[in-house]
UniProtKB/TrEMBL annotation:
It is found in: Membrane. Its main location: membrane. The keyword Transmembrane applies. This is Phosphatidic acid phosphatase type 2/haloperoxidase domain-containing protein. It comes from the Bacteria. PANTHER family: PA-PHOSPHATASE RELATED-FAMILY PROTEIN DDB_G0268928, PTHR31310. Keywords: Membrane, Transmembrane, Transmembrane helix. The lineage of its organism: Bacteria, Pseudomonadati, Nitrospirota, Thermodesulfovibrionia, Thermodesulfovibrionales. It comes from Thermodesulfovibrio aggregans.
Amino acid sequence: MIKRLFRLQPAFQLNIVFFTFLCLILLIFSDRLPSFNFFIIYASIVIFQIFLCKVPENAFLSFIKNIGLPVFSVLIAFDTIGELIAYINPKDIDAVLLKFDYSILGFYPYVYFDKIANPALTELMQLSYCFYYILPFMIGIYLIKNGNKQEFYRALFLVLFCYYLSYIGYMLFPALGPRYSIPHMFQNELNGLFLAHKIKDLLNSLEGIKRDAFPSGHVAVSLVVLILMLKYSKKLFLLSFIPVIFLIISTIYCRYHYFTDVLGGILLTVVTLLVGNLYYSFWLSKNGNTVIKR
């Protein structure tokens, strides 16, 4: 069984292993959970991933396997893990992260931004924060369009690996972030010009209150994708470089993250690229350097 799993594309291996891991987490903490509904969801993703890897491929199933299911898996994992953390590890570390921030910088950057905030800057920062949601699609579409299937699968694996490592980080180090943990320290509402308030309300309604601050997945995933762009497309890299810098700043300006979260996101980027590329290259060497694996 392990040999069969190893023959699958690393991205598909990862999905099977990660959601199996989540099933085990549910079993371990079953006495703390109000329901067991998530187990059915996680097990279904594992079974469906295995099914997609076994059936003959066509254009529709290829889209579901390579794009649809990975996107769905990331969203489901984020949403459900956010709810589980309160039961499996309810001790938030916001106070610790605040202390780290002050120890490193000598001030609280989100409080400083509160003093200089203005509608135009808030609009720019909130829009920059949303750039994160399209970055993975930009590199994925570019690689598919250029027929670079091997590097598409590498990129897919690295991006999923980064997401799932960040989710494990949320479980180990739960934190709400400045907007929820220290609202009393802010004197002003972050009001934009046109879209900022609507975007903020939409994100708050979709995400709810989650302990997803450390490490910053926004920073980690964005940097992983940016580095992939540097490798595969200098034009995409140059197009995205400044928006990603603004995105990183926006995580603090918009009060979603601590400075320490950003540092954690940078560290997560390094771990993702080092470990992920090592494993993918090892997998290629053991599978005849071919990507035509279900």
